[in-house]
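Example A, followed by Example B.
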Amino acid sequence: MAKINKKTRRLLLNLGFVALLVTVTLVVLFVNHKELNFHDIFEYFKNSNPVWIVAAFVCMLLFIVFEGLSIYLIARFFGSKTKVLSSMAYSSADTFYSAITPTAAGGQPAAVFYMARDGMSAGKASFAMLFNVIGYTAAIFAIGIAAVCINPSLFGGINTVFAKVLVIAGAVIQAGLLGLYIGCMFFGKAIIKVGNGLVKLLNKIKIVKNPDKWRNKIEEEVQKYGECRHILKEKPVVIFTTLILNILQRVSQTLIPCFVCLAIDPEAPFLDIFVLQAFVLFGYNSIPIPGGVGAYEYLFINIYVQMYDKAFILLALMISRLFSYYFSMFVSGIVTLTYHMVKVKKVPAEQPSESAPPEEDSAEQSEEENL
């Protein structure tokens, strides 16, 4: 019997963890909400407007495509000869590994791995994903702020205090991350000083055992963002283009529940649904769970309750989640696997070590460094 290697075992464990989360979430939904049943889901697809269903599916694909275009353009700005189809594979790897690893730790390292394997220098690949992370964070924050401006009263209609806390926490976290990125780019010395002070404090209370290691990490990351600042000054169109494409990516994701609702309720207030979904987007990004499984469902139910009855909310939740998470994970996984296998065949026999995706340990380490 063939022995399963460490990388495959980690992948299977991650998939198993996601499957467990999904199972627990579905059990909770079906036990606590008797209105939800598979017959209603079948009737939804039977009676809904297929145009809006197709639109929801296209938005799921656009979520992958827009990130791929962002990576492609950034790589081109850095002088890489990256192809569009390869960039779509990098985006798929990011989407798939982010969906199955805690805190989405595996997404960026997986994309960097495939970019480097295709000949891009590790430095350029890391910078490409670094710019994309900044654009991603700014996009979530921008969409949330736009939602508040469109209809701030909808926030007050959120059903539970905890759901409101999650939305606020998501806004604070995204604003904090964006501020940290900007601070690293323009106020590097101050960030290093604050970081070193924090490391010293954590070392005193026995949380950090190797302060020199963490100080070096902080300096290295701040230096990376400092180099981003120089690139930004030379080619400001890079960050602008990245931001626009990331906003389009997040908008396409946010539109999925809007189209799901319109498919069965053509009179639905489109902008209000968009605002509600933007609050969901803010909230579940505050929870470090793969795909926000559990948190997303909780927020959806308690945010949409101000507009629809429970039966419709549960139905819309299941259908929109099917497109935005499960189909997305399936499609990106198939693309990643196909690209991986095709490239493995092209790798010379003497280079077998480059044919396997990165381990989760290195993924988590890279995520810590990016943060």
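Example B, a separate protein, is given below in the same form.
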Amino acid sequence: MQPRRQKYRRTFRAKIDMVASNGTKLSFGDYGIKAMEPSLISAKQIEAARKKITHYTKRSGKVWVRMFPYHPRTEKAAGVKMGGGKGSVSGFASPIRAGRILFEIVGVSEDTAKEAFRLAGYKLPCKVKFVRKEDEF
């Protein structure tokens, strides 16, 4: 996953050390996982977690990915000395603040959703928590 086009090729680092104000409630599914700490989640990590959820649920139900990797990450080539400007874009990441819903699912049992999200949590760089729709109200 990556943006189709961008206004600027390289950006400053994202500020993620705050608590999320948007995307903290389940909007589409009955179950979800919430980030408990701030993190930069790469596009590869998002895809690995999504694949794990889809594989465990055997493609039953519907899965929503509530984040998109729009933030370019740069990297200088191996063996390059200091200076010479910023490195080239090596991939994209999604800056996640604490409390943000990452994935949602509907159409599966609670046990299946809980286990699928547990497996997906291993693929993510931050601590996550399983949340239910009925617990929010």
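On Example B: The beta strands are 31-35, 39-42, 62-65, 71-75, 88-96, 101-106, 128-132.
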